[in-house]
Protein 1
Amino acid sequence: MNNKQIEIIHSYSADILDKIENIIQRPVISYNGEITSKLHGDFQIALEKIKNRDYENCKIAILLRTSGGSVEGAERMVNAIRTHFDDVMFIIDEYAMSAGTMIALSGNEIMMHYNATLGPIDPQFPNEKGIYIPASAYIHKINELIEKSKNESLSQAEIIMMGNTIDIGTLSQYESAIELGILLVENWLAEYKFHNWQGKTPNQKKERAREIASSLSDFKKWHTHGRPLNINHLKSLRLKITNYTTVPKFTELDSLIREYRHTVGIGEKSIFVHSKDIII
């Protein structure tokens, strides 16, 4: 995409973002693409430009679309957002999976399209063939084999598999990554999402947050890392999610976001950051 094309896209799409901002009464930044451990500098710049537009403003909305990425990347992005803004709304019109789910759960408010999804938060690691597998699936299978060994019911094939696959260092790394994901989501939910939860002590908020984070990291519950979790799934965890397609004051929001996606026309292969102030 050349500079002229970028200018044309920005001219049309900034207009749409302006209309979205007027509806939700806060600045909007769009983030599209992978969540990387090396914080995308353009996202940081976009946050700073929005803050400089109105330094007293403490609110922001983030239109997020991502298939996920690294836990470390999620933590860096949330730290960057919270450095500048106290009241954060996430708008999920399509999907925010894995590390994207973690980021969304750091918001004070989550708004979703009725068909949009979040996902399980268990981390993935590449195996020897370069195929990414959920760490919790590996641990679940190892624990299953250990139980069978206690009962002396292991088959010869399973004994060989244990010998070939169990690596104490790798197992420890997987367990630590799972615990980090749970801990981050627990802390973010308790501090931000549950901030205005009346009648609950800090400990009660932490307990509830831990329960949700652990559930989202439970491979046995969701069966696959890529399981799309819609609003009903999330509400079953007692997470408050706003379906913006049913809120009268947000009547135009769905069509505006669709128009924005169509105008920008960016797939998820590259990281794309956009606000009224900047397009990269």
Protein 2
Amino acid sequence: MTNKILKIALVGRTNAGKSTLINKIVGEKISIQNKKINTTQETVMGVKNMKKTQLIFYDTPGSNFLKSLNKDSKNLKINLWNGIDGSDIIFYLIDSKMANIKFLYEQIDKLQEVKKKIIVIFNKIDLISNKQLLPLISDLDKNFNIDSFFTISAIQNIGIDDLLDYIQKYSYVSKWIFKDDEITNKDDIFIISELLRETMLKYLHKEIPYNINIETSNFKTLKNNDIKIKQKIIINQKRYKKIILGKKGEMIKKIREDSQKKMSQILKAKIHLYLEILNA
């Protein structure tokens, strides 16, 4: 039987659940999840192999940036469009409880310019009844050329298998891009750096994690198979150091312990994490 592939762009407003969905599909945490705006700043690719078909998912930054003219969001916009351009079809993900018809019209209208099949996915249906969505689905179906509509709950793993089964008909004969055991285009260093950034987003004021860089300076497997990790938190404003440290170092301790626990779960090893705050 011949190998096939299909590349899918996950597009949607910030917090529509794109990262939750891609993590659920590949079965591992590869993309940062947080309720604060635009936590996915790079295009992370997730891989799901189903028999002879390789599905490649592009987790893009929030689609708030589709038409953005803001200089600060230029790279986010580029990463978003790169994910769309590199895909074969588009999953447009919507937070069912936050659906805004005017915003959806603008977004889908813009997406249709690329002439690719668009599958509209209403996420978080565990928080809303399907009946409430029917008028919106009917409206979008009448006004746009939508391939199909799906309702899912990424966090509860509802409807995802049906969605994956459906899109396989669009796969095409090709060599696989990723090896059989690969689930992402990102390495462990990137993922643990993202885990630290995710933890900082959780605990700190929203402006700080967008104005820092995380650098993993040491990643070493010890003789007993524990892993020693050293990470530098590089800040561009001195005032951030005091906030990150917290009173009597309580904040940085909380960040380190939480990050260490997440890294241990991902890497399936005991982690010894050391953090250092440096000025850029």
Protein 3
Amino acid sequence: MPATVFPDTMGRRHNPFAENVYPVEMVEETRVSPWFRLIPPGIIVAGTIFAVVYGWYAFQAERGRVDELFRRNAKDHVKAVETGVLSHLEAVNSLADLFTATGEVSRDEFAAFAGSIRDRIPNVKALEWVPRVHDGNRAELEAQAREDIPWFRFHGGPRRFAGDDAGGEDRFPVYYVEPLEGNEAALGFDPPHHPIRQDAVLRAVETGALSVSAPTDLVQGGPLAILVFAPVYAAGADAVPESVVGLAEGVFDVGAIFEQSLAMLEPTGQDLFLSLIHISE
């Protein structure tokens, strides 16, 4: 039997058995704007850009903080080393002041005064008195030293420092040394050929200022050390090279100076490498 079709009120054919049937003109297609489809990718891109920019600024801020911390730590380390070096140089100046103030200083007096310095600066390798010696007083000074130390003699040290001594030139041998133990080989040391030592000695005599040698090996052995000389003038004389009667000398282990100077600093978690560079003329 064919389906019955009733006309609707609009005069159109209507099937009463069909469900959800609407006039064609009542169904409109829902259209989405193409810009709306770009919103999710845009959010992703914007978020990514924000994350990159924020990360860059955060990185720059952290790098600035680390750089500032590094500069501050480096400055603290350099200041600590500078303070340590100056304290060692001042020790030599104070030793020179002893001879300037009293004129004659006995071996026992020298040992006591040098010992007080070593109590304040425990890593001092040696403190020494280096008088000006020439042909006219050489034998006398050697004899006087033997009254305290029978085995004392002026010597040129190992073969690498020894050489022909033409005589007639003023020399600056080690006459007092404190501590004596461990530095016996340095006592009486009068090398004819030791360019590093001789340069520092002559610089102190000629300039009248504190003179520091390049790092050098020692006749008594041990690590490389620097030699520091301070001139001492005759009482009442002008500060000219001819008036120099001797030199106060300090022998210092450079590595020990660094270690002692930096020992009081708090760990920072950063690695710093310090170098000592000797600049000669």
Protein 4
Amino acid sequence: MGVWKKALSFYLKSFLFTWIWWLLPVLTGTRPITGKLFLALGGAMPLLTVLISLDGNRERKRFLIRCVDFKRISVSGYLIIIFLFPLSNLVALLLYTGGEFSNHLTQISSFVQNPVSLIPFLLFMLLFGPLTEEPAWRGYVPDLVREKVSFWQMSVISALFWALWHLPLFFMEGSYQQRTADAGFICLLTYVAAFFPHAILMIRFYDRYRGSVLSAILIHWSANTWGELLGIPEEAKIWRTVIEAVVVTILIVIDTIKEKNGKTERKSKRSPGEIQRPV
């Protein structure tokens, strides 16, 4: 089977396994509390599909190492992951509120008062989304087709399928996606557009850090966590998406210039059997 057929087959299986769980509460009118169980089960399907699709325990082990290997990522990569998303949310709030955004910090205030409650929150934000999605979208699929396409083509493919995968959630009662759609067309468009700068940054890190899956998990985790912590309203998210798109574009341009001048921080040491990804 060719790599494109294999990639498409993987996407179809991931979508099918997920959408079965997500469409059950939509079609049966299940209450939101039960729907959350279906939401979690469906969200886990991309990771399960990866584990099923990998050939043998040895390949699974090598793949899973890339999901936890923090040494692949450079210091500058970690700095981008740590600071990009809190800053983009804060600047978006400043632009939207004119500087009066203290009422959007209630979530952070509650964690300051009860720091222990931050632990289950962070674990939840890690498990539901980053840990179950990124091994598929920024791991297994790029492994198959990255060498067949340019960096920008891979980024667009990654973002489009990632966005499309969420489609049933727009019809699930009580879901974030349904609330976003109810907020209006601009909010819906902003939601879809936000997938692109994130996917672009993740694929760049995939290339830069020898197929690092952990980098994508951390980017996804940071983006989701700070969005929740700062309670940014739907109408302000257009600012956040524009800011992130501009910053990511600047980072890519700088990285490309450095690469042409031979000054990149590419982790060039390869594991046995690994191949250098084209930019």
